[in-house]
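User: My instructor asked us to take a sequence, write out its structure as tokens, and then describe one feature of it. I'm not sure where to start. Here is the sequence I was given:
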Amino acid sequence: MMKEFQTNSYLFGSNAPFIEELYESYLDNPASVPEQWRDYFDALQIMPGAAAHDVAHAPVIASFAELAKLGKTGVAPGAVADKRQIGVLQMISAYRFLGNRWAQIDPLRRQERPQIAELEPSFYGFTEADLSQVFHTGSFHFSGGHQASLREIIAALRETYCASVAVEYMYLSDISQKRWIQSRIEPTRARPSFSLAQKKHILERLTAAETLEKYLHTRYVGQKRFSLEGGESTIVALDAVINQAGSQGVQEIVIGMAHRGRLNVLVNTLGKSPAMLFSEFEGKHAADLSAGDVKYHLGFSSDVSTPGGGVHLTLAFNPSHLEIVNPVVQGSVYARQQRRSAESRTQAMSLLIHGDAAVAGQGVNQETLNFSQTRGFSTGGTVHIVVNNQIGFTTSDPRDIRSSLYCTDVFKMVEAPIFHVNGDDPEAVAMVAQLAVEFRQQFHKDVVIDIVCYRKLGHNEQDEPMVTQPLMYKKINAHPGTRKLYGDKLVAQGACSAEEPEQQIRDFRSALDRGELLYNPVLSGYTRKYAQDWSPYLNHEYTDACDTSVPVVEIKRLANRLTDVPADIALHPRVAKIIADRRAMGEGTLPLDWGMAENLAYASLVAEGFGVRLSGQDAGRGTFFHRHAVLHDQNRERWDAGSYVPLEHIQQGQAPFTVIDSVLSENAVLGFEYGYATAEPNQLVVWEAQFGDFANGAQVVIDQFISSGEAKWGRLSGITMLLPHGYEGQGPEHSSARPERYMQLCAENNWQVCMPTTPAQIFHLLRRQMVRPLRKPLVVMTPKSLLRHKDAVSSLAELGEGQFRTVIGETDPLAADKVRRIVLCSGKIYYELVAERRARGEQDIAIIRIEQLYPFPNDAFALEIAKYPNAKEIVWCQEEPRNQGNWYWFVSRQHLARSLSGDHRLYLVSRAASASPAAGYFAKHQMQQKAVIDGIFGELNQDLAPNR
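Assistant: Let's start with the prediction itself. The structure tokens for your sequence are:
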């Protein structure tokens, strides 16, 4: 019988996906499948070599797929399966997969229902005569058991999957997640069940959202606010998410969103005072910031009450780059989770609000989703809300919006379930919001709420949408609004009086006239256990001075810990040699190289209580094989406990050290690290680019957050960016970190840009980031060839004494009064210049290294220039083309000129201006590099540089 059933039943072969679903149902509950299938699956349990209750899922599914390849689709006479019964089960599966296509989720009802044969009973051979026939319902939930008439089954399927809620989830690999969703929506037919008080609360939230928008529209005519009108159910969703999260143990939620509806969220979700908002409309800025930002970019934080206790809400500041805030939020949440216990993922949560066009169109979403479940980046799942205006910014032609069916299809890459919901059904919106939080807390995965709504006004309040979407806006202008529809519904149900909805509006308007909120969830005097104190880093004047010395005896101890590798870790021979050399460095018998000094900086910080987080695409080993913060056992795979991190074992009670080889992403990963740094001032947060030029892929994060976040929003950050830089003949993308771009952004002591040239310098520079009571971003042009250069070394004493030197003067014993020319430079070209000078025997050219380019060290620079009273020629030497690098910045800012007298003449020696950062041909690189070096020691051309 088994063989006949397996080889002859038409259910196998092309229907293998259906059998997979049936088999999963059997695994979950044997009674949920028809008897003949239960017998068949039971038989699998006693197949030769199988243990009871231990038949693996994957091999069985693989066998179904193999049968599909063989085309086993014939029907045997007298087969045990009833074709009509199987048709019912196939139809149930079809509705779970495709029912969302028929769902009534568009408030405007613009599109006709598509033709989907699999959702029609006739597709399975059913007629009107079969509607009263009773069938087994498989795993579909019926309160009366596992049997129902075909009429009841069809009605239940359409109520569940084709009404105001459309769920996409059947692509989930984990059967328990699919069964969880089915258990939540199928017994209730995806219909919410709220009490009278809860319904009135939903109406109140809608009224608050609508009334605020209309109030602003009449009071501040023509001003941009990016209205939420048409999507007011977003406020209902947020209310449900926050309250449900609080009930399930969440204590902190960080929210990221763009400008659409942001003012409404600030007031009606976070409890920002309307009076404060009105003052911003009127140009009265309370914040004492040098630049500030428009009101619909501003962040806010508050503590609100929920049924489960107080929840701290943070709305992240965000520029107009829409989705770019998403990784920033994830980094901030991760930092907050790190301060907590093992249950941290359930106590701090990220909530992201997207626009329909941006969520599909902006690649940072894919990057962020890609690391959502990786080590060092996973925040245990994010709740996503898509405010789906169905319009795609300013276009209405679906050919121009995206290439996928839904704007949310990108989330399927991480198997996030997606709840599409009609924005005109606020109860359904609240219900799926609650389900989304439950799913996130249960499975620690991303989950999506797609609120299908519309945009009442144009892209902004000065835009006329009828110009480009006339038919759509005829429907919108005729729409009474979600609040009106829901208020009428409650009146019809007898849930409230006919006057109550309008009275709510009047009450809200009166409160807004007073600059107050009618309903304010904000808790006053609420104390958070895990709040971070930033006060030690506020209101400090910028200073370079900082004692970063470490006693030599302590450096030796740290070096010993860094080189104490467990005996059961078999190192690669090259790594073993590096560790042996480092042991000698710690003992003082070898000078310290770059990698050892950098690791000692991290070791000293974690020993002093400062955490260190280091990420990049090859951060553990180091892109140029210099760091080796992670040691790999050559006899075990790295994911099988085959790695050892010495910096995690410096001493008992040390601060945490984390090093992560990040995904192949710059934009999202750097945004994540920035977000982490803004939430954690007590950790050195370092992002390392594989090559400095790769930071181009994260330019939005650099421009809009790192360089300007303090000026716009008052947000401090100590994030450190390590950008390998130096002309080594490796081509345009592997030479320049584009220092000119960072210099262009320098102002108001907003950050530090440095180009250290010795191991001691990187040691003190990294320590300065944490030891000094300032939190400013640090951009470091790190070297490549200097990592192993024989002259780029330091002694233990240089690490043990002093501080970071912003300017390093001449180190060779030159007679100061004989010097006729001073060469200024930064980075690895210094060593090439010194080597050439020694080879030529020149004694009248002094070389000064500018180690900190910004803030420019005017006093230290002036002291070095003053040492050479007879030097009249001042030369800036750089490897970069003259239109790149630091030359124009120094000249335009007059930094060099401040310390020069009228007798000095200023020159430039560099590569010629170029559209490309560097030559791609090695021979050409060598020729250009030689020309730069020779130019320093030859006759200077007056035309190379303007007079001061």
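For the description part of your assignment, you could build on this observation: Residues 51 and 819 are 88 Å apart (CA to CA). Try explaining in your own words what that tells you about the chain.
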